[in-house]
Amino acid sequence: QVQLVESGGGSVQPGGSLRLACAGSGRTLDHYAVGWFRQAPGKEREGVSGMGAYVTWTDYLESVEGRFTISRDSGKNTVYLQMNNLRPEDTGRYYCAAIDDPRKTLAGIALRDPNRYNTWGQGTLVTVSS
User: Fold this and answer.
1) What is the pLDDT along the chain (130 residues), one digit of tens a residue?
2) d(C-alpha 3, C-alpha 12), whole Å
3) From edge to edge, which strands make up the β-sheet containing 68-73?
4) Which residues contact 62 (CB under 8 A, 6 or more apart)?
5) Inter-CA distances, 87 with 39, 60, 61, 98, Å
6) Is the distance from CB of 3 to CB of 27 less than 8 angstroms?
7) Cα(120)–Cα(39) distance, rounded to whole angstroms?
8) Nearest alpha carbon to residue 114 among 57, 33, 20
């Protein structure tokens, strides 16, 4: 079972940028689908972005399309979420999650369904405020 640790959260002003990292340990993440999720106080967890195993597919929440980019560095066994032009509504705790998917079956909007994942990190807090 892979273990996940997120980092990179912080406080920024609107329009700022952050890069979140999801570092895997114990197993290579290459054959895992990985998703990024966020949860704001009083709201349900929502899928922000996801990447299929072997970097096959990516999917984004409509409100972050064009501002956020998910990427994978196999050498560092890490999946990143680059977040640009941040807005106050992007505030929340961000989690990464993974599911072993060597057959590459998870694609499209399913990459942002939290019920598809069985391994979660502890989260990192992002606050966007002036």
Assistant:
1) 899 999 999 999 999 999 999 999 999 999 999 999 999 989 999 999 999 999 889 999 999 999 999 999 999 999 999 999 999 999 999 999 999 999 999 999 999 999 999 999 999 999 999 9
2) 28
3) 3-7, 18-25, 78-83, 68-73
4) none
5) 15, 16, 14, 26
6) no
7) 13
8) 33
Hey, is 52 helix, strand or coil?
Answer: coil
**If 0-12 CB within 10 Å is exposed, 13-18 middle and 19+ buried, where does residue 26 land?**
exposed
In a 13 Å sphere around the CA of 57, the CA atoms on its Cβ side amount to 17
Q: Which one-letter amino acid corresponds to residue 26?
A: G
Which tokens is 129 given? 């405020």
Structure tokens at 111: 């990459």
